[in-house]
Amino acid sequence: MPSNTPIVGFHFSVIFELVPQFSIDTKFQSVNGLKATMETESYTEGGQNRFKHNFPVRSGYQDLVLKRSLTSDLSGVAMWCTQALEDFIFYPANLVISLLNENGNPIKVWYVSHAIPISYEVSDFNAEENKIVIETMTLRYNFYKEIPIPGF
């Protein structure tokens, strides 16, 4: 049933179309980068000095940044990143990012196409702080598309 209630962003899942995939591979602390922009080309019209015309050229997408706590669990996503960044073997993967309701059912879903890892980072270690170590994966992708959910 459709609702006009604002959607909260703290309950979500990320599913990679990768093999192998382990339970840790769907659990992330944050997802950032579902952003589309339009490149434009400026044209200055003769005789009109107040403004320039801007014409759309192509759309572009921001890099996707995934963060999660570092664990000792085996991770297919981490192996995928390592294989690309260390061995220069790239296997583009598709992802499904879902915002979930209180029952764990998707209410908004985005399909991310043809992602490849471009960066993998582990947060700082500091003997003076008791903080969780975070691994950050940055992916470049071709595009994303919202998938309609019937009833929402």
TrEMBL record:
Any single Pfam family the record assigns to this protein: Phage_T4_gp19
InterPro entries attached to this UniProt entry: CHP02241 (IPR011747), Phage_T4_Gp19 (IPR010667)
Top-rank lineage group of the source organism: Bacteria
Stretch forming the signal peptide: none
Cited NCBIfam families: conserved hypothetical phage tail region protein (TIGR02241)
Protein name (record): Phage tail protein
Biological source species: Flavobacterium jejuense
